[in-house]
């Protein structure tokens, strides 16, 4: 597997999601990731921190340049807790929990790499559905972290490596019924 290509794919996908979702600086972008699936294996069977680092580098390049907070989802063994910057934890009034993600035991490779590489990283149990957009790489289930209403987002690609990706963004709820006029920029 070409790690440089994985990083480029992750960067491209993230850039397209950021543009399509209109996410802004100071908002959260959630990533759930199975490095095993990127390698064409079943989730949880072939964890790779090298693949996770390539993904992290591509994703963080886009998010950091735009001032968008990354929320890196852990695996189910840590109850899908998330790695975030301390500044995001404080801004969103989140509660820190005490665990350090591990690639093969609890957390997963992507969360482990995020915890190691992210400036002033902390682990939080929940972000209370505050993410504005995100990407699920390999079927890790991120919808619970995105602010309702979660809308699927189609981009120019449907895989990173061998992993299927599902992209999503939020949109404000529609209110007012058939008489309402909606702001097209928010749809």
TrEMBL record:
Determine the domain of life of the protein's source.
Bacteria
Q: Cross-referenced SUPFAM superfamilies, in alphabetical order?
A: TTHA0583/YokD-like
Q: Which family does it belong to?
A: Belongs to the UPF0340 family.
NCBIfam families named in the record: TIGR01440 family protein
Q: What is this protein called?
A: UPF0340 protein FYJ62_09230
Q: Which organism is it from?
A: Lactobacillus porci
Q: What is the lineage of its organism?
A: Bacteria, Bacillati, Bacillota, Bacilli, Lactobacillales
């Amino acid at each position: 597997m070409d790690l440089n290509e994985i990083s480029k794919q992750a960067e491209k996908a993230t850039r397209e999601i950021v543009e399509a979702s209109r996410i802004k600086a100071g908002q959260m972008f959630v990533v759930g990731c199975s490095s095993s699936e990127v390698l064409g294996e079943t989730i949880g069977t072939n964890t790779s921190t090298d693949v996770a680092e390539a993904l992290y580098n591509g994703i963080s390049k886009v998010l950091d340049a735009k001032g968008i907070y990354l929320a890196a989802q852990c695996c189910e063994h840590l109850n899908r807790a998330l790695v975030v910057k301390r500044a995001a934890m404080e801004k969103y009034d989140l509660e820190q929990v005490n665990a350090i993600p591990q690639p093969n035991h609890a957390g997963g490779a992507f969360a482990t790499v995020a915890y190691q590489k992210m400036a002033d990283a902390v682990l939080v149990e929940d972000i209370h559905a505050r993410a504005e957009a995100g990407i699920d790489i390999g079927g890790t289930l991120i919808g619970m972290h995105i602010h309702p209403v979660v809308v699927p987002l189609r981009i120019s690609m449907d895989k990173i490596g061998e992993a299927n990706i599902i992209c999503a963004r939020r949109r404000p709820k529609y209110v007012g019924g058939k008489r309402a006029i909606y702001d097209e920029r928010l749809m």
